């Protein structure tokens, strides 16, 4: 059975793009997906496993071997049997006649294991792509934090310049200038920390495809562009098609094949043998043959049948438990997404515009001597904190979105609904 990777294609369409030819070329999320898909050892491992399972299928398809034999009687004894003249030689051919569909049951079991391996590979691939998206998002978030820190630096530099002018004019003490300079140094520290965090996140991303000294820049993206998702009821319906649950379908097929193989053991096989024998006197020959069948096969097969049935029952319970766990994870991720998306949206629409106006007004008042440095500095700090809060909320929404995509196998892009054939860049 060839697995249709619809869930994977819905999560992200890994386009046939080339790797960057120069270190300065920006690395897109699709290119990161492609690198991991081709280089990660956890995915390459499935190729070796498939070869082993295909060998098992070939072995399961073999019929019982033919056994050629030779038997020599009445030789090296006493009396007339002390010579070779009275020897009886029998040449035989023997094998086992399998009954009860054992050959087909073995083939079905081996093929089911191969099919399950394909499902498992797609599930693992989906998990890896989700991890790529998370690490790529970490780089994007660190870049955005660096941009916010640079905005804060620019603000603080203007504040230092204004405080120095007022101090030189004798309108404020030197302590105000020193305080403004300390705030500027703190903003520069935040910027340096963001740059270091970006470098660490880039190294963490490159480790997924084994690159030890990453020199690439990422294409980036706007983490504040948080898309909408479908209603939770629709997401829960998509959850039923996730590879994590699809694996149980193949596991059930394997269990059913094992049960059929155990049932076939209840039908005894026939051991047969035919041959030709040279008689003691003269050169006469005769045919010989035998057939044997074991007794009590039905009774001996019952423990295996009960064990196979119990495994099927346990598998159904495991699937139910996995379904509940995935549903709970989806509910938690959807809740985090909705809360974080609302927070980021309200901060951008209501809070930040008002804080920007208040800060501009405080700057004008400070330069005119109508407001203190403390009032202006407090508004600057509050504005920077609100920008940082919006970014953290947007990143949390994007992380929850990646988890929703991993669980449902659906992709979402900003300003639209689910996409069946297009990936979403967090």
UniProtKB/TrEMBL annotation:
Residues 1-23 form the signal peptide. One of its GO terms (molecular function) is efflux transmembrane transporter activity. PANTHER family: BLR4935 PROTEIN, OUTER MEMBRANE CATION EFFLUX PROTEIN. Gene3D superfamilies: Outer membrane efflux proteins (OEP). This is Cation transporter. InterPro entries: MdtP/NodT-like, OMP_efflux. Belongs to the outer membrane factor (OMF) (TC 1.B.17) family. The keyword Signal applies. Keywords: Signal. It comes from Lysobacter defluvii IMMIB APB-9 = DSM 18482. The keyword Oxidoreductase does not apply. It comes from the Bacteria.
């Amino acid at each position: 059975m060839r697995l249709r990777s619809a869930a994977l294609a819905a999560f992200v369409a890994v386009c046939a793009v080339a790797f960057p030819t120069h270190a300065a070329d920006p690395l897109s999320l699709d290119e990161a997906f492609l690198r991991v898909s081709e280089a990660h050892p956890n995915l390459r491992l499935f190729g070796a496993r498939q070869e082993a399972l295909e060998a098992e299928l070939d072995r399961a398809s073999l019929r019982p071997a033919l056994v050629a034999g030779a038997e020599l009687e009445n030789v090296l004894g006493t009396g007339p049997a002390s010579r070779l003249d009275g020897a009886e030689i029998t040449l035989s051919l023997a094998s086992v006649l399998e009954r009860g569909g054992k050959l087909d049951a073995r083939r079905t079991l081996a093929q089911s294991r191969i099919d399950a391996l394909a499902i498992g590979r797609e599930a693992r691939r989906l998990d890896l792509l989700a991890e790529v998206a998370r690490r790529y998002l970490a780089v994007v978030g660190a870049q955005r934090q660096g941009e916010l820190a640079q905005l804060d630096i620019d603000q603080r530099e203007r504040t230092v310049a204004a405080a120095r002018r007022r101090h030189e004019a004798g309108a404020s003490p030197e302590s105000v200038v020193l305080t403004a300079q300390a705030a500027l140094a703190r903003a520069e520290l935040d910027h340096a920390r963001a740059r270091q965090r970006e470098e660490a996140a880039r190294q963490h991303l490159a480790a997924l495809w084994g690159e030890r000294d990453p020199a690439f820049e990422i294409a980036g993206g706007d983490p504040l562009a948080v898309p909408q998702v479908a209603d939770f009821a629709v997401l829960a319906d998509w959850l039923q098609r996730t590879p994590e649950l699809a694996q149980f379908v193949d596991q059930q097929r394997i269990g059913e094949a094992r049960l059929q193989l155990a049932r076939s053991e209840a039908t005894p096989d026939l051991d047969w043998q035919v041959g030709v024998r040279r008689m003691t006197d003269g050169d006469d020959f005769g045919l010989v043959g035998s057939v044997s069948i074991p007794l009590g096969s039905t009774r001996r097969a019952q423990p295996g049948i009960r064990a196979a049935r119990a495994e099927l029952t346990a598998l159904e319970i495991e699937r139910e438990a996995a379904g509940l766990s995935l549903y709970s994870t989806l509910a938690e991720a959807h809740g985090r997404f909705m809360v974080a998306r609302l927070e980021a949206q309200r901060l951008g629409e209501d809070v930040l515009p008002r804080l920007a106006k208040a800060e501009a007004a405080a700057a004008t008042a400070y330069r005119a001597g109508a407001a203190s440095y403390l009032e202006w500095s407090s508004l600057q700090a509050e504005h920077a904190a609100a920008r940082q809060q919006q970014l953290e909320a947007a990143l949390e929404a994007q992380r929850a979105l990646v988890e929703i995509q991993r669980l449902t196998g659906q992709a979402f892009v900003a300003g639209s609904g689910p996409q069946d054939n297009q990936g979403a860049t967090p």
